[in-house]
Amino acid sequence: QVQLVESGGGLVQAGESLRLSCVASGSTFGDYAIGWFRQIIGNERDFIGAISSTKRTYLVDSLKDRFTISRDDAKNTAYLEMNNLKPDETGVYYCAANPYLAGASREYAYWGQGTQVTVSS
């Protein structure tokens, strides 16, 4: 099993940036792909992107120009860098672990508790 803890959320103004971290423990971090999701009020938990154990990344098309996913296996940490944030991106952001790269939340067995991101206008 793997335990995940997100951090780095907070309150920012529109146009600003945040970097979220996802720290893993309890298992070999390098064996897992890490997915990032967000749940905006009134919406489903939406897939943002993921990074495989070999550092292959995937981001949804609408976010590719502003978001970046990376990982540092020596630190058991994955990152989600978000630039030019918008007020309608306010929500809870989650990381999740899976043995392979996947885009559906149902494929991820391990989840963090989420971190709140609030973007003011």
What is Rg? 13 Å
Give the overall form.
globular
Question: Gap between N and C termini, in Å?
Answer: 40 Å
Structural class: mainly beta
Query: What share of residues are in beta strands?
Result: over 45%
User: In percent, how helical is the residue content?
Assistant: under 10%
What is the quaternary state of this protein? single chain
Largest sheet: 7 strands, mixed
Please count the beta strands (DSSP E, at least 2 residues each): 11
Order of helices and strands: EEEEEEEEEEE
Q: Would you tell me the overall average pLDDT?
A: 96
Sequence stretches where pLDDT stays below 50 over 5 or more residues? none
Count of individual helical segments = 0
Helix/strand layout:
Blueprint: E1 3-7, E2 10-13, E3 18-25, E4 33-39, E5 45-51, E6 57-59, E7 67-72, E8 77-82, E9 91-98, E10 110-111, E11 115-120
Compact overview of the structure:
This protein is mostly beta strands and 121 residues long. It is 0% helix and 51% strand. The strands form two sheets. Strands 2, 4, 5, 6, 9, 10 and 11 form a seven-stranded mixed beta sheet that branches. Strands 1-3-8-7 form a four-stranded antiparallel beta sheet, with no helix packed on it.
